[in-house]
Amino acid sequence: MRNCLFIIFSTVLFFGLSSCTQTAKTQNALPSPLPDSLLRREKEYTSLEEALAAPEKVYMLDLKGQGLRELPESIGRLKYLQHLTLSENHLKRLPDSLVMLKNLQMVLLNDNQGLDTESTFQFLAKLPNLRTISLKNADLNYLPGDVKEIDQILLLDLAGNPKINIKDVIKFLYNKKNLAYLNLGHNRLETLPKEMRKFNQVIGIYLDHNLLKTLPSVITEMTQIAVLDLRSNQITHLPKSIKNLKKLELLLLKDNPIPVYELAKIREWLPNTEIVLDY
User: What angle (nearest 5°) sits at the alpha carbon of residue 239, between those of residues 236 and 245?
Assistant: First the structure.
């Protein structure tokens, strides 16, 4: 069970949770996106030139770490594209033609320092099948709270953006009723705003490598949580109210100064939860 639950976040990142939702045909009468079972059989292209030579065959494109400063407008020809990885580049803006990629489900933009936040989210908001957005280590300062069109998002990864205002994140997520996984790790968080209780549909929340000394009380009100990652914080105890998380299946506590007697309490309060201290 440990491996199954712990890798769920990375699995979602790589396969976009497309098997969890049904998507309608796009306005351009494209076929619905392939389900995971079929998508995994497709070739993952790593050359934009090669992909553009056979655009009707391209469902996954990985341009990670290729030193890109911009993408050509011709990427809009990849109309069947579902997964796009642009991590570890030097992108500032996305091309206008990106809005042509109506089947796009997952966009990874990790480690693109200086990415224009406003224009990026305006483009992403025009992608009707988008489910996974990853902006890890992107040096974000804020999220545009007025972008309401991205209401179908299932997974948002904002780890490694310590400058970001957590209240901006809350505003952005306000109407995202499908959100299931949220990664706020490596953000130097000391607590979480009470407004997060509105996201009671979230089943996986990742708060590793922050500055938490105990569990923010709002988390105990998010009763659908199944996976809670609290690794590498400054936690010495958890509140008894953690008993409210009756659906919690996996609790990650590695690298926290929790005394043995406090661990005994946690195990008593969460008898059906796998508690991992050494992952």
Answer: 120
